[in-house]
Structure formats: structure tokens, C-alpha cells
Amino acid sequence: MRLPLSASALTVLAALLATPATAATPVTLDQAMAHPDWIGTPVEAAWWSWDGKQVLYKQKRTGSPLRDIWQTGATAGINKARLVGDAELSKIDSPDVAYNRERTRAILLRNGDLFERDLKTGELAQITRASGVAIGGVQYSADGRSVQFRVGDDWASWDRASRLIAPLAVLRAAKDPNAAPEADALRDMQLRLIATLKRQKDEREAQRNRAEEERRADPTRAPAPIYLGDKLAIVTSHLSPDGRWALVVTGPKDADKGRVGKMPRYVTESGYEETSDERTRVGRKDPRPHGLKLVNLQTREVKDLSFDVLPGIKDDPLAALRAEHKLDALKGNRPVKVGFGGETVVWSPNGANAAVMLRSVDNKDRWIATVDLPRAALKPVHRLTDQAWVNFDNSEFGWLPDNGTLWYLSEESGYSHLYTLDASGRTRALTAGKWEASDVAWSRDGDTAWVICNRKDPGTYEVCAVNARDGATREVSSLDGGVEDFRLSPDQRKLLVHYSGPYLPPQIATLPSNGGEAVKLTDTRTAEFKSHDWIQPQFVTVPSTHGADAIWSKLYRPARLEAGKKYPVVMFVHGAGYLQNVSHRYTPYFREQMFHNLLVQKGYVVLDMDYRASKGYGAKWRNAIYRQMGHPELDDYLDGVNWMVANQQGDAKNVGVYGGSYGGFMTFMALLRAPEVFKSGAALRPVTDWTTYNHEYTANILNTPDVDPEAYKVSSPIEYAQNLKGNLLIAHGMVDDNVFFQDSVRMAQRLIELKKDNWELAPYPMERHSFVQPESWYDEYRRIYQLFERTLKQPSSTQ
Asked: Which of 321, 397, 451, 694 could bridge across to 408 with cysteines, CB 3.0–4.6 Å?
């Protein structure tokens, strides 16, 4: 391991970093890694006022963790907002809103309580006033006269006319105390022989039956609990708007969580070391499967919905791997979960139809099924299957206002697109092409869908309007490709849009929903940040020599390359695996982008690539890494290095690489699998062994270690540690509860045992996966900068 620099050397380095001289408005390392408040706090949640004339938004206070609410006119222009005072908070609207069918009323969920707003008069009525009670599932009843909502496992209704809150469904994961006991010979004999016992039993049952008859006959009485059994847990439930049915998602009761990890903390307020339980590792315990029950609230009947009807449910896509590793064959149906964590069950507005999204625990199939309510049976209407894994993103679905047409997003074409399925069973693709549709919002009449689209190129995002009759699609926003999300105004005539840019944190604008000029409402950047002449990333496509599409990338380089000069190359690898960084939006890697400015100032050229597995490029691009993480991506980076050498005067003998999380993993794969190309690398919070990562992410890509050990072996950097030849920095937060610090510790021990040189491990005792403290950011990137300066600026002729 390399010894730390002396104090005098650090002083020289600090002076060097503080006085860059090659850019008109240079950035220092200290400034790039400072608290991001110096950039300007971005606009966070934003929402419409009830009349669509005002916009409200949250913004963090500079130098404080507190948030304020601001209000501005919908067409007021830049920075005309005023601070909403505390005395006004009881009157304002909320970002959590649900509209009735006619969009004349809206339910607001604010600070855990429910309110209803009359959108004609503005009158606001409070529905609940509770403390610490979680409310969910908020919706209007089918007739629009009441508001329905879930509190815990119970459903209640607020009637507008009577202002009364009444229970609708009381669901209990318990055994019915009034149910007949199981047969028992001794009990039967006692009741046969002892008349007093028999008489007491009959009287007790008569009283109970009469009480239930009175309850049912008296509309002022609350319904009795419905008992689902004591061998399950209620995960969630969904009430039909007509109040007749409930669909209940269940899971096993007290299921074994598997062996959990223990994470030590050494720097604590108590002064003593402390530990906490963390997640289980992949394959140590499969996710709990779900069941689905249909409850008839009128008859109180409870029926299980069988998954047997799901196409392919009995097929095992991993059968060959199980046989190869002498594992027991799958028996019966594959385990199933309901939904992906968002919407799982959607009722039509009138309550007559329900749709359910289900997925196999092995991640190979996603189904949408409707529910035959009288027969208590599922009817599959769509199956999305993938030999690798089905995308958890782009899983929105719902019903159109006609109550009979289902809409959904699907990757069946290879890209996420919008489809409808009418009552006759006819499926129509409303969007198509080598681009992706997401974040769907429908007009009140069901004639138009608004989606976020990237039709021009994968990194350019706008709002598109889609005609439900003919699928005609057109962009209605023109915000330089930086749209992040949007909201329809209450009357649906306007859009409130979050947008951003390469050096513009998220801001808000309004525009007509049918297209037109946007009115920008905020620019929260500081004067200091705006005064910088930042190096704008050049969006380039790198040809693939490995059979893939061109690789979209962001290039950072001097405005003019010196003739005959070779520039050291730094390759940046974004994290998260399934994430897109080559877009016209504000990058989550804004510190790294400023660091790239500094590197260019210091004589480097930098390439940031959306390697295979990145988001926004379709299913084939995403699942290219199935069973071989780090292999297609490395091919893409090798193509990137060759492109930099051929087109940007890159020095092939001085190439560095760095990144965090998945980027840290890829830094290891680059140094260990292509040591002849990558001379230096900084692996930040890296995965070094995929068997230690979580289940929901890793099992998608590599299956599980018992079924597919070879996939884990070829994908884990620790298996290639013997190949290290270059210069390596490992930096990791010691209380990282995403990628455990243990990953870096185990790799360090492996390198020690292999007697490897030119590597160092920098631990950060108080940092989690995403660093928070500016001092930690500075220390980490000082080390990265030192690494590249020390190793990548040697003349090529001497190597």
C-alpha cells in the first residue's frame, strides 16, 4: 500500500488545486466538493393550486435541512415567488391529490390528514384529524358522494352529506373467534353427555347470531371484522369504489428473514461501538411469495384467487441450471408476488372491473390479469416474459374512464410503450419505435395520454401527447430535452413541468397541455454558480465493435486540442447499474461533472458512457449483462478508450477509470480484466463479490448463487484479484448499508495475500453509500486526483 503524502507535499497539492489556470472561470477541488447549497437549492416537489392559477413548491433553505413552501403565479415568470407563511399552511393545497371523475372535487392528503376541496368554489373541508395514523388508498366512491381510504388494514368512508366517517371493511389476519372448533372426540362426548354444557353453548351461539342479525339490519352499526385466518399476514388491500369488494394481498406470517448482516459503527454519539441489523444477502432467503384473496363485503365470503391460470406459471426457466447443479426440480407453480411495489391492483372507476399485476419471484414473467368477480377467478390478459429479467420500471397500468378499457406499459417490442386492451379483447399499441414512454397521465375523457418520451435521441426527454384513437404522438414541450416529470392542472389545460439541464438543477415551468411556449418560473442557481463558464458536455456516439448499438457518451475536453499532444484519458462509470447519465437532464453526478471540469483544466480528456445495462435504451441494452455482469460493459469501455485515442488525441498508455457503486465494481473489472489498457483506477463504494449484495437487484441479473454459481464467479471482481497490475484506490463508507464495507475489506485482504503493490484503502467512518459531508467528498476526490496526477502524466515514451 502507498504511504500517505507528507504535510509539505499536501500543502503544495492544495495550492495547485486552488489555483487552476487553464479555464476562464476555473473550479477548485474544494469548491467542486463543497456543500451543494453553493450551487443553489433545487425545486423539489411542485404542485398546482386548486384553481390552476398558482403553483406551489418546496425548496430547501440554504445552510439548513429545513424546507419552505413557496407560491407563484402560473404565468408569473422567473423568480416571482413568495414564501408561504405558517399562518397560511392550513389553507394550501397538497402534492398528494386525487380527483373525482368530473374533476370538480379533489381529495388532498396533507400532513397525514385528509381534506376535500370543491374546485368550483375553493371551499376546503377537513375529513380527518389524527396523529400518527397512516392513511392510504385514497379514492372517490363510484357515485362520487363519498371518500374512501385505508387506515392500517381497515377501510373507511367519509360521507359528504352527513360528514360522518364510517368503517367499510375491517380485515383481520386472525382466526375467527366465532368459527366452529375443529372436530374433537372428547369435546363431542362432553356435549352429548352433559346437558348443561350443551345448553350453555346453544344459548351463547343464539346470542351471538342475534347480535350479528341486529348489526346487519341496523345501518348505523359498524360492520363486524372479516377474519382471513391466522396463518398469514396482510400486505395490502384494495377496495372497489362501489364498496362491494376488497382484494387483499397476503404473505406468510412470521416468515424466516434469513441470516441478516451486522454492521458495526465505530464513531458514535454514545462513545461506544454500536451494531445494527442490515439486509440479507442474495439467495440467503427468497422474497416472500404473495397470495390474493377476494372478499365479498356484502356476503362476507372470502375466496382465494388461484394463480394456476397464469400462462407459464408451472414452467421453470431455470430448470436446466437446477439439474446441472443437482438441485431439486421445481414442484408446482413458481412463487408469485403481486406488483412491483407501486400500483398492484387497479379498480375501474365504477368498481365493476379490477386488474392485478403479478410477477414471478424468479423475475422472468410479469402478468396482468382481470378479476372475474362472480366466479372469484383471475383471467390473464397480458404476459411479458424475458429469459433474462422483466424490467421493474415501466410497470404502470390502469383503466380508462369508459370502465372497460385497460391501458398498460410493456416492453414487448423491446422498448417501453403504451398499449390499450378493450372489452372485446383487442390490443392496440398506441406508441412504437426505438424510444421509451413512461409516466402516463390520461385526460378526463380518455382521448389523450401524456407521457415522458425520448423520441429524438435516448437522452432527450420531453412531454409527448398521444391520441388514444389513432396513436398519433407529438411533443408538446420544448425544454431542451431536460424534462424530469410533469403534472396536469386541475382543468387539464396546462402542464406543470420539472425540467433541468447539464448545469441547471431541477426547476419548474408551465405550458399549455396541447403544446406551446413554456413559462419558466424559477432559476434557483446562485450568482456564483451561474458566473462559471462551465465545460458543456459534448454528446457523442461511440461505435461498438462488439455487436451492440452505438454507445451514447458525454465527452469533456478542451475547446481546442493542441496539435501533436496526447492527453491522458479518464473514463467515468456511472453507478446504479440501471441508470442513465448521458442525458440533457441535470446529472446526479454534479460533483463528478465539476471534477471533470477540473480534470480538463489540468490537461485530461474525460469520457462518461451509458454502457450496456444503462436505462433508456430498451430491453436488449438492459439485459445484455444477464449472467455476465462487467463483461459487455467492459467491452463498451474498451471501445470508448479506442475512440478517445483515435478521435480525441487520447494517450493509450495513460488511461484511468473511476466510479462509485456499480461504477466502483466496473473500475475493478477494468483494472483486473483489462490491465493492459487501464493504468489506474478509483473504485468507490464498490461491489467486489455479488454473492454479498441484495436479492431483488442481483437475482434479476445473476439468478441466485445456488442455481447459477458460474454467473457469480465470472461477474465478481474478487475472482480476478490476481490480475492487478495498475494503481488502485478503494474508497468506502464504513456504515454503507447498500454495498457493505465488508466488500472492500475482503478485497483488501485478498490483495494482501496476493502481495499486490500500488493500492490503498480509504475508509470513511461516518459515511453511508452516498456521502454527505463535504470533508469526506473532498478527501475522496483529493485522493482520486492525486492518483491520476501521479500515474497518468508520465511521458508515453517512458512506459
From this structure: 397
Number of Cα atoms under 13 Å in the Cβ half of residue 557 = 24
Q: How far apart are CA 568 and CA 796, in angstroms?
A: 10
Global pTM reads 0.92
Nearest to 581 by CA among 599, 559, 603, 596: 596
Return d(Cα 652, Cα 2) in angstroms, integer. 25
Q: Give the strand pairing for 226-227 and 232-239.
A: unpaired
Q: Is 357 helix (H, G, I), strand (E, B) or coil?
A: strand
Give dist(CA 472, CA 231) in Å, integer: 51
Residue-wise pLDDT for 694-727, tens only, equals 998 999 999 999 999 999 999 999 999 999 999 9
Residue for cell digits 400518527?
Answer: 132
Query: Using CB atoms within 10 A of its CB, is residue 196 exposed (0-12), middle (13-18) or buried (19+)?
Result: exposed
Q: Among all chains, which residue has been given the C-alpha cell 390479469? A: 369
What are the beta bridge partners of residue 787? none
Q: What are phi and psi of 469, to 5 degrees?
A: -85, -45
Q: Any idea what DSSP says for residue 588? A: T
User: Beta-carbon neighbour count of residue 701 at 10 Å?
Assistant: 23
**DSSP 8-state class, residue 482:** B
- Cα atoms in the 13 Å half-sphere on the side-chain side of 443: 16
pLDDT in tens, 650-681: 999 999 999 999 999 999 999 999 999 999 99
d(CA 329, CA 294): 31
- Map residue 721 onto helix, strand or coil: helix
542, pLDDT greater than 90: yes
623's CB contacts (< 8 A; 6+ apart) are 386, 388, 389, 701
Provide the β-strand partners of residue 113: 110
Q: How far apart are CA 84 and CA 578, in angstroms?
A: 38
Say if CB 521 and CB 55 are below 8 A apart. Answer: yes
Residue holding cell 470533508? 775
The C-alpha cell at 589 is 453526478
- Are the CB atoms for 632 and 598 separated by under 8 Å? no
Q: Please give the Cα distance from 651 to 794 (Å, whole number).
A: 10
Record the cell numbers describing residue 57, joined without a space: 413548491
Q: Which of 230, 244, 229 is nearest to 371 (CA)?
A: 244
What is the C-alpha radius of gyration for the chain, rounded to an integer number of angstroms? 30
Where would I find the H helices in 292-385? 319-324
Distance (Å, whole) CA 519 – CA 1: 56
CA geometry: angle 456, 457, 462, nearest 5 deg: 55
Tally the residues of the chain. 799
The C-alpha atoms of residue 327 and residue 313 are separated, in whole angstroms, by 19
β-strand partners of 438: 452
User: 3-class SS at 81?
Assistant: coil
The closest alpha carbon to 572, from 504, 675, 458, 664, belongs to 664
